[in-house]
Specification:
Blueprint: H1 6-9, E1 22-25, H2 36-39, E2 43-46, H3 64-73, E3 78-80, H4 85-96, E4 104-106, H5 145-148
Parallel strand pairs: 1-2, 3-4
Length: 149
């Protein structure tokens, strides 16, 4: 894995090292120099890069977060923040789309692979989404670990 700053290093899943990816960032950080260590190894894109072509500069700024979520939900890999309802909702939308939970990660080292195993909802319900939110929602049976894999 490319050596990048310690905070960003743990966020980049090893799956990205094996392929040439464009990394897209949807975040509150406005100082792009923060991302320079990653820019040495990957092509980076930010929502603001599409302001003109997508007409985002004419959009009500209150809608930008929703656009971020829709775009992130359709990415091949998503790295979010544990205890973020914003990231959790992206995880749920990815589940609705049928995207594998093994392509979602959390930036915190101890939670990085949290979505890679089956778990029933438990305390801190808003910390993340659970596969019971999208597995089996159209059927009459309770979702289980069998449905997850």
């Amino acid at each position: 894995m490319p050596q990048v700053s310690s905070g960003l290093h743990i966020c980049v899943p090893s799956i990205l090292v094996m392929r040439a990816y464009i990394l897209s960032f949807f975040q509150d950080e406005t100082n792009r120099t923060f991302f320079e260590p990653l820019a040495k190894h990957y092509s980076l894109k930010f929502l603001s890069d599409f302001q003109d072509v997508a007409g985002l500069n004419q959009l009500d700024p209150n809608f930008v977060g929703m656009i971020d979520q829709v775009v992130c939900s359709r990415g091949r890999v998503f790295v979010g923040t544990y205890f973020s309802s914003f990231s959790a909702y992206i995880g749920r939308m990815r589940g609705y789309h049928g995207t594998s939970n093994k392509l979602m990660f959390y930036g915190q080292r101890d939670r990085k692979y949290e979505t890679h195993t089956w778990s029933y909802p438990h305390s801190s319900y808003s910390a993340r989404e659970y596969p019971t939110g999208w597995n089996g929602i159209d059927g009459d049976t309770e979702p289980s670990e069998v449905d997850f894999f």
